[in-house]
Amino acid sequence: MQLLRQLLLVIFLLSGILCFSATNGVYSDTLYLDLKSAEKRFLDQNLDLLIAKTNIDQAKALLLQSKLWDNPEVDLNRELYNSDTKKFLSHNKNTQFDLQFSQLVTTAGKYFKQIQINKQNVQLSEFEFFDLMRTLKLAVRQNFYEINRDQQKLEVIKDGMSELDKLIDVTGLQVERGNIARKELIRLQSMMLEFASEQSELYNSIAGNESDLKQLLNYNGNEYIVANLDTISTLPQKIESLMFDSLQSTAFQNRYDLLSADLQTSIGKNSVQLEKMRGAPDLHLGVDYDRYGSAFPSYFGLVVGIPLPLWNFNQGNIKAAKAQYAQVLLQQQSKELQVHNTLMSAYVQLLNQNKLYQSTNKKYYTSFNEIYRNVYDSYKSRSIGLIEFLDYFESYKDTRFNLIEIENQLLKQAQQINFETGKDIL
Questions:
Q1: Which of 163, 206, 277, 419 could share a disulfide with 110, CB 3.0–4.6 Å?
Q2: Of the candidates 235, 325, 236, the residue with the CA atom closest to the CA atom of residue 275
Q3: Element (H, E) at 77
Q4: How many CA atoms lie within 13 A of 169 on its CB side?
Q5: For the CA atoms of the chain, what is the radius of gyration?
């Protein structure tokens, strides 16, 4: 029995050292962060958003390029070798040469239709940017809530370990005096070891979420982040006032992925028109000057060139554009259905979570704390036994964890509504 006690004490001490080093040996300082400050840094510094902005710049550059005309062409045809004079590139006043100047002229409105499509592509890249922002903002908030949840649980664990530590000291003295059986001390030490293990798991969870949050914030500091949240006392009332039809209307007006789907149908329709226009041949217009190459010593002529659409009038590309247009129409219908269904699911889950949260009110939490203090004092005075005390002690910890988890889930479900509607409603 003595060996078991020593083994438990060694394991406990090692666990305490590991947990202590997790927060004090690695982190250089503590960073107290609220959600508003985190979101501001996210909007300014997030690397994925900065990368997405370059897509907008690329689309604008392609729009600029589409507005430029094709460069004109100049062709010179002259004598390379004179067999009479035995000279290369000989030149005199009777040297024959032909000079042509030509310009490609697009027809059937292709030039302006391409510009219109590229303008829409710029808008599409902007929609995609804002939709990415919506997705990443949800990740920032969820990571922030997860850190706050685990840090609240850590406080429960630390409080419990503090109380157990006092009990272990008192019980240890009573064991030495022979007033209490050693097995009670070992049972308390075992409970302490369980708490230390849960503490270590919470630190690991926080470390993982902090890593994700720092990535989203483009932050490489070694500080331990403490996530501070404002009170959510008014949130349940706001949730009760929500109506699904209003939420769906908001989503259809503000969801950038849905706006992108609508825009892609317009781009698809314009692409079909452009491919039909490309079936019309373009013109090559130019002038030709020929010296001593014809019956006249100096000949000026007009050059007009046009491909004959005998076999290829772009029919394959037209068919492909029509198929793509049909595809984006179906994708638009699929996106609208997805928005409706995911929003309905999020709305129902939010109402259920809000109902659960309101049923676990602060009065219950306060009364449970009071009962715990009474039970703790009763055990210290030996009015109740160890088993009864430990059962309640574990029940108290689990209840505190459940209350924290219920609040955390309510916050996350509220943010899911913001995500599904594309607007910060809650």
A1: 277
A2: 325
A3: strand 73-78
A4: 5
A5: 38
